[in-house]
Amino acid sequence: MHELSATATAYQPTSRRPIAQVFRETARLPVRVCVHLRIHPDLISYASIVASLAAAVCFWRAGLHPWLLLIAPAFCYLRLWLNMLDGMVAIAAGKASWRGEILNDLPDRISDVLIFAGVAYSGLGARDSGFWAAIFALLTAYVGMFGQAVGAQREFSGVMSKPWRMVTLHAGAWITFAAIVWGHGRIHWGRLSILDWTCLLVVAGCTQTIAVRLRRIFAALEAKQRRAVETVSHEIPIEDCAGATTHTFTSSDGAQLFYRAWIPQQPTEKAVLLFHRGHEHSARWQETVKALGLDDFAVFAWDQRGHGHSPGERGYAQNLAAVVKDADVFARRVCSAHGVRIENVAVVAHSVGAVVATAWVHDYAPPIRCLVLGAPAFRVKLYLPLAIPLLRLKQMFVRHSVVKSYVKAKMLTHDAEQARAYEADPLIFRQIAVNILLDLFDTSARLMADAGAISAPTLILAAGNDWVVKVSAQRQFFRNLGSSVKQFEVLPSFYHAIFHEKDRRLVTDRIRTFIEDRFSHEPLKDGLLDADRGGYTRTEFDCLRAPGGARWKMLRAVMQTGGRMSRGISLGWEAGFDSGVTLDYIYENKPRGITPIGKCVDYFYLNSIGWRGIRVRRHNLERMLRDAIRQVHESGRPVRIMDIASGPGRYVLETIHSMPEVPIRALLRDYKEANLDAAQKLSETLGLHDVIIAEGDAFDRQSLASVVPRPTIAIVSGLYELIPDNARVLRSLGGIADALEDQGLLIYTNQPWHPQVEFIARVLTNREGEPWIMRRRTQAEMDELVRVSGFEKIEQAIDPWGIFTVSVARRVTR
Question: How is residue 530 annotated by DSSP?
Fold first, then answer.
């Protein structure tokens, strides 16, 4: 189809296409004549080529005979009219077909090339610009057809559709003729001829048109995909899995995710959580559940967001961190609804599900009994060179896009019957969102580098002949794994789908043996309270305290000199990069600096991954503080907040100010007078009256315990990350526990991971003017410190990069 013909919808009257409407009105009588005379639409298409050729000849000879510039537009309009006429005749005569559309479009493209080639060879300038105009005209038409080719509709939007290209060329031709006749042959404006400017205008308009059409096509495809996803779980009936019941749980964003449960007849306190591979769903575990033979275990398998009967676009999520959060909510839901303690939960996960489960264990530190990873997708085999950089480039320009998996069923299993079942399964799909694929790569890199933080007993089963993922990455993860009980086994000749291979009994037997062995022992207690004196993160801390190399000194010198053009970097050197003043600047997130170069440097400084994580941490803090305030208020208790190291206290004060309906009293403590003054000023600006600003030591247990009235919410944010030893943290937490009312809530933060921890230690300084060297605490270590101080963790949030966590714990009655 072209822009003026080939479908009935193309001729519907619309104010957005007035030229098409005029042509349509003039063609009514000729259409009836052509139908009566049985003139085939293809003949009309070929006639349009003849008209275009005539226009091209007129432009070509116009250098010698300027009067041809008056005739050429007439042939151009005749070409447009014939282009529309053939489609109208095809529809009226009942001869419209896909073949006709193709034959209609080809002459149309030939016509564009002929006309602009005639302009290029006219001798009136426009040699290069004419060719560029022809290229962009072809691209514009191609992009318009692209929507129909990918399942949307053909796009005619934009300022430079085919009729307007002809109108623009018409105007350029007549202005050139006027310049020749009445302007004494002066056809140039500046260094370019009038036809040059005309063709450049066509190029500019086509560029805008291409952008508009692409945007509308992508929007239409996304809307179509969303509509398909919204109905997929309703259109396909839920499979009947023997012995399984179906349930849903509400995730953190309100999504109702689907899961299956195989509950034994006798009550049990032991459970297994199953995480399927990408593209699949929970029903695929049915045979595995039976083969495992763990009859005294309750078994639960979810449909991951965007998979199976769970809602969401197929293969898509906001990010992988959202899926990991779903896993945490899923586990909590299972434990609370079915009476299982998390210490009595085993996890079995496959491929991408194994990465999700590993990230959950790393980031949320649930004290599960054991972890089984089947062919974990720590590195997917992407056979295209530079696949990851190319996908990142695509993600920059197309924020919401998918790629299709190259994996066929025969590459997953040697079992022909299982391969046929895979291909026939209506709930299995092949696409995956680009952002999820990139997040999978980045999250896996973080997990492999920081596997020492995972202490859960772990069994890894690798496929010896895996076409999908790299076994070398699984070995690297295993080498770095911090668990004292870990096993790695390669299954010779197995393909990636180890749970559906011919010899899958070997897999289920091995997993059953491992799980039963772990449940025959008491849960491992690693004693992380002494991790500050010797352990995984202590070793890293000691290495960071050792002198750095020459490159770090060079970077520090650059930051101390040219870096000061950035307002943020300059402020960091003055007040400390970990100070409350610096954090306020980071939260404001408005680049400033000396000269535009300094402002540009400040922009990149503010958007470094650590500061982006800090801003997400603040968002999570504010959300959890609001939730805690509502929870305490709805329980009938007074809302009394204590922040033991508030800095300027901006997020606390602004949160209080945003909730005038709840009576709130707050105590903000800090040891720095400048921070207290800033907090007092902000409090007065916001008109808050029940806020006390006081000097206080966050590590003085007696001082904290003596706070009256006793708070119901305590906050410690960004403080313990700066303190390497655990004894001081335990004193502080003990003081908070003494101060809080029973069932009071503690909101605390942690930094279990940071990709720039060495750069920070070697280059930046803290508020004391010393090198800013941090000892990371694994989330398991931080949670244990909180637990032994008299709290029970009930909620956690983390940023998409796994850097900063925000958790809520409840003070348990002693």
Answer: G
